Amino acid sequence: MAKRKAHRKHKANRDKNRVKTTKLNKTNKTIKAAKTKEHKRSAFGIFKESAKELKDVRCLVVTAMLIALELAIKQITVTISPDLKVSFAFLAKASVGMLYGPTVAFFEGLVSDVVSFLIKPTGTFSPLFTLQEGFAAMLYGLFLYKLKLTRKDLHDKTLQKQSAGQIARIVLAKLSVTVGINLFYTPLAIIITNSMAAGTFVYGSTLAGYPARLIKNAIQFPADCVLLIAFLPIVSTAYNLVFRRNNKNVSIGIRL
Questions:
Q1: Residue-range domain boundaries for the chain
Q2: Is 251 helix (H, G, I), strand (E, B) or coil?
Q3: What fold does the segment set 46-246 form as a domain?
């Protein structure tokens, strides 16, 4: 009799453990599926999520303000040669990418280039260089969208240390633009534009000036990274202060 009771108790415990194991496996599968879905969203849905920002009037107003800032900064561009220029207009592009993502940033780059050409025409207008501005802004958006920064307020004299992950995203954003746009796309666009104007394939002057381009970008890269690390927290802090004050229920992409 005692053996029979012990057997029943053992069987009941075994069934309970089996139910617990089944529930645990289902929970693990649910968590794994959720993580997979989140990974897919972050990898492929960032453009769609950024595009939704365009429905917000706040996005349009802030982007227009940053375009105006970019146009103002472009007026103090330092020209080294016809093909080499030093400008800090990238700070405005990076700010739009950080706040609203790659889709909004891409259109910001297109609009700012067209408006800049209309205000101060330089040479012949080429869609290739307009796309260059759009692609550069888009890369900033891909790396910096919803970047989490840690500056307490605008009066904070000492810039707090950012986490290694946030700094890495800023550096990678600037590196992608430097290599992908400045060192690859721009020379190619210059060659295509010059060749179309000359009616034959022209590349000699562009290749001859490439070492200077390489040196200029190598020197400017670390300085630009420092500027981004210093400037972006100010933009995100001001953005959060303004919209939290006006609407405390607004969901802000960048959290301090």
A1: 46-246
A2: coil
A3: Arp2/3 complex 21 kDa subunit ARPC3 (1.10.1760)
**Quick check: helix, strand or coil at residue 69?**
helix
* DSSP state at residue 256: -
Query: How high does pLDDT run on average in the chain?
Result: 78
DSSP assignment letter at 184: I
Asked whether the predicted pLDDT for residue 234 surpasses 80, the reply is yes
CA distances in angstroms from 52 to 56, 103, 174, 209, listed in the order given: 8, 9, 25, 42
Whole-angstrom distance, CA of residue 8 vs CA of residue 68: 79
Specify whether the CB–CB gap between 73 and 89 falls below 8 A.
Answer: yes
Judged on CB neighbours under 10 Å (0-12, 13-18, 19+), 13 is exposed
pTM (2 d.p.) = 0.74
Mean pLDDT value of segment 79-98: 79
